[in-house]
Design a protein that fits this description.
Length: 253
């Protein structure tokens, strides 16, 4: 008779498992329980998890012990806490590539999610001295300026603060940026010739924090990009992303 590959747990193996479990700190057992339930699909991304009071009753432990477990899972970006609303399963980190300039709308849709944008500012304004130097224009030269918030499944994931050279995209102010992204318009109006990047972690100023629906001074991933077209600098853009939701990826070769 062939021996089954599945072995019934013996009293000895069950005892070993129980001892191993008992050796774990209680807060770690609570963390493992929450992570296991999320992995099993009981609570999905964005769904609320049991309150600390419910976990206190379930495990028969102190509020301090439960709070430590929840606090550590929040720091590890497994959970996210909203003041006055509860604790939720944190969204997965959204990814963007640094290798290829793509529309954020295309990236969101490629993940099977819904994209929308909210226009906060669209104007013609004089260039500051630093901006004028970046565009190689005279100080106070007129530029186009837009500030747009991009959403993924109604979660704000990017504030796009963009300055545009009117010589490269004269119709920029006429665009409906609810139906087309600035990147999509510029790629058509001013074919890309080159780009330079920098990326850093910065605390969110109050206005950026409000648009991203995060606390002021929350750490953000900030991508600054300068693109050129037709032998001119076409666009200077700063893109703010909530650090706990976003990561940049890329490969060469």
């Amino acid at each position: 008779m062939l021996e089954s590959p599945f072995r019934r747990a013996t009293p000895e193996s069950s005892l070993e498992h129980t001892i191993a479990q008992d050796s774990l700190p209680i807060f770690q057992r609570i963390k493992d329980y929450l992570v296991g339930e999320i992995a099993a699909g009981r609570w999905k991304e964005g769904e609320v998890v049991p309150s600390e009071q419910a976990l206190v009753r379930q495990f028969g432990v102190s509020r301090m012990t439960v709070n430590r477990a929840v606090r550590e899972l929040t720091a590890e970006h497994v959970l996210t806490r909203r003041q006055g609303s509860g604790t939720f399963v944190a969204p997965k980190k959204y990814q963007a590539t640094l290798v290829e300039i793509k529309s954020i709308a295309d990236e969101v849709r490629a993940r099977g999610h819904a994209h929308r944008s909210a226009l906060h500012l669209l104007e013609q304004a004089p260039a500051s001295e630093p901006l004028a130097r970046q565009f190689d224009l005279a100080a106070q030269a007129m530029l186009f300026h837009s500030v747009i918030v991009h959403f993924e499944n109604e979660v704000p994931i990017q504030v796009e603060d963009r300055w545009v050279n009117p010589q490269c995209a004269p119709d920029y102010l006429l665009q409906d940026f609810a139906s087309i992204t600035p990147n999509e318009h510029l790629m058509a109006a001013a074919p890309l010739q080159g780009a330079t990047y920098s990326i850093e972690a910065l605390p969110a100023p109050r206005d950026i924090a409000e648009m991203l629906a995060v606390d002021a001074r929350t750490c953000c991933l900030v991508l600054k990009r300068v693109t050129s077209s037709l032998e001119r600098v076409a666009s200077v853009v700063t893109m703010w992303h909530p650090g706990q939701l976003y990561q940049y990826t890329g490969s060469v070769g």
